[in-house]
């Protein structure tokens, strides 16, 4: 393996971007812009590229923090006490928001939106990096500062959003000079929560392992379970939408459980098998090994829970503390299981389902990565 000094964005181009393994998380660009280097930018196609090659310091950090490289994997696993197959976890629940407005727009039980609302209203964070809806399919990253902002961002988009690029943007406007990284870090007062797919959370965690900005601003992470990204336009291209005889504009919400669920404005739900969705997944997603968002403070998804509930995996003491406080303050509620042994059995069942998806995703990734070696 090359030493850290010999690595640069050129290596990301060779090993990740040109091999179609870049997931467009924006991590490399966020580091570069947050530190005022500005050698990189996100191109119109959503992939990172050189903005000004001469400005590149060739320090290799962008390579190390990229979630699609194996760099820092061992450090991450040690830091977060990782265990096969879904990382460290201490509790699992089915839960939902107590706010009807949130429930109405959320993907599942609105736990993400209500947890973030609690964090903002309790002034534990100054903002949350989420992605605002733009039409049915589109999203753009924003820093939510109020319940209203969060409600605008609730629901899921299964297309990639360059969340971390946004983090780099706000940071660079505060501390544009790399020479003052250390000083800047100690002066930072902004505290952010980040909602993200496993690749996005992984990039931030790698930055935190290296103790570099902009990751120091992120004090709490909510990780979404993730099988893959895709766009409704991809579905349309593959004729799924035509065969179903529906119009994209008539889709109210999109969700993934054991099937892709299109919730139509008319109230009906259309179910599409995940194997069909796999056909339109990006190569980067097929090569991705992380389903359960192994390095988040709390991971969430829809699988395993009843309609209208979010499956919540609490991973560490910070996650437990914030979740318990939000529940105590009445922002969220757990699903109640009446029989005395019901909760334990339910916990085992939920954990089993999450592990099963995680293992299936890892096997899929291994096959893809093996095929790239040939
Ligand atoms: C790309 C993707 C794939 C997923 N795959 C699965 C899966 O296979 N199985 C499963 O059980 N769950 C999956 N989920 C998670 C699930 O869809 C819900 O987001 C989760 O259950 C939380 O529901 P909620 O009602 O509590 O969240 P909400 O209260 O609706 O909040 C959702 C939050 O996610 C943010 N968000 C939406 N889209 C994105 C995005 N593309 N990137 C980053 N943040 C985003 C929103 O801004 C919002 O803050 C996936 C989510 C995404 C975005
Ligand atoms: S850090 Fe993210 S955006 Fe940059 S090359 Fe890696 S996967 Fe792509
Ligand atoms: S499958 Fe992996 S690479 Fe694709 S969006 Fe999800 S976490 Fe990112």
What key attributes describe this structure?
single chain; 374 residues; alpha+beta; 8-stranded mixed sheet; 3-stranded antiparallel sheet; 16 helices; 13 strands; binds flavin-adenine dinucleotide; binds iron/sulfur cluster
The amount of beta strand, in percent, is: 15-25%
Distance between the termini: 19 Å
Helix-strand string:
HHEEHHEHHEEHHHEHEHHEEEHHEEHEH
Give the rounded overall mean pLDDT: 85
* Overall form: globular
Q: Residue ranges: pLDDT <50 for 5 or more in a row?
A: 170-189
What structural class do the secondary elements suggest?
A: alpha+beta
Main sheet makeup: 8 strands, mixed
* Ions, cofactors and other bound molecules: flavin-adenine dinucleotide, iron/sulfur cluster
Helix content: 25-40%
Major sheet strand order? 5-4-6-7-11-12-3-13
Gyration radius from CA atoms, angstroms: 20 Å
Count of DSSP H/I helices: 16
Assembly level: single chain
Count of individual beta strands: 13
A few lines on this structure:
This protein has 16 helices and 13 strands.
Question: What do you see in this structure?
Answer:
Helix content is 40%, strand content 18%. The protein contains 16 helices and 13 strands. The strands form three sheets. The chain has an eight-stranded mixed sheet with strand order 5-4-6-7-11-12-3-13, sandwiched between helices. The protein has a three-stranded antiparallel sheet with strand order 8-9-10. A hairpin with a 5-residue loop joins strand 1 and strand 2. Flavin-adenine dinucleotide (FAD) binds at residues 106-113, 130-131, 139, 153-158, 161, 163, 195-197, 224-227, 229, 255-257, 300-303, 310.
């Amino acid at each position: 393996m090359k030493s850290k000094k010999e690595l640069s964005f050129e290596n990301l181009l060779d090993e990740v971007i040109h091999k179609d393994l870049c997931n467009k998380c924006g991590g490399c660009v966020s580091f570069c812009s947050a530190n005022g280097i500005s050698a990189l930018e996100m191109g119109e196609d959503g992939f990172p590229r050189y903005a000004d090659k001469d400005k590149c310091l060739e320090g290799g950090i962008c390579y190390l923090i990229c979630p699609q490289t194996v760099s820092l994997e061992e450090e991450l696993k040690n830091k977060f006490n990782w265990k096969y197959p879904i990382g460290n976890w201490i509790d699992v629940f089915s839960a939902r928001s107590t706010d009807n407005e949130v429930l109405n727009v959320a993907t599942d039980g609105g736990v993400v939106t209500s947890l973030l609302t609690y964090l903002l209203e309790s002034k534990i964070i100054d903002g949350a990096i989420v992605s605002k809806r733009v039409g049915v399919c589109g999203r753009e990253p924003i820093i939510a500062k109020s319940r209203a902002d969060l409600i605008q961002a609730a629901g899921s988009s299964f297309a990639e959003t360059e969340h971390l690029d946004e983090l780099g943007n706000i940071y660079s406007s505060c501390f544009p000079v790399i020479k003052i990284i250390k000083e800047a870090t100690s002066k930072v007062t902004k505290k952010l929560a980040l909602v993200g797919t496993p690749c996005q959370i992984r990039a931030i965690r790698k930055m935190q392992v290296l103790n570099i900005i902009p990751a120091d601003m992120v004090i709490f992470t909510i990780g979404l379970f993730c099988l893959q990204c895709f766009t409704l336009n991809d579905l349309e291209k593959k004729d799924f939408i035509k065969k179903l005889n529906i119009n994209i504009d008539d889709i109210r919400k999109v969700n993934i459980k054991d099937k892709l669920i299109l919730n139509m404005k008319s109230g009906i739900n259309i179910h599409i098998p995940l194997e069909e969705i796999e056909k339109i997944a990006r190569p980067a997603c097929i090569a991705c090994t992380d389903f359960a968002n192994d390095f988040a403070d709390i991971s969430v998804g829809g699988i395993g829970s009843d309609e209208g509930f979010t499956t919540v995996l609490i991973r560490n003491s910070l996650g437990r503390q914030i979740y318990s406080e939000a529940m105590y303050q009445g922002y969220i509620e757990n699903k109640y299981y009446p029989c005395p042994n019901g909760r334990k059995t339910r916990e085992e069942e939920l954990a089993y389902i999450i592990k099963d998806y995680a293992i299936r995703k890892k096997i899929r990734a291994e096959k893809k990565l093996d095929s790239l070696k040939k």
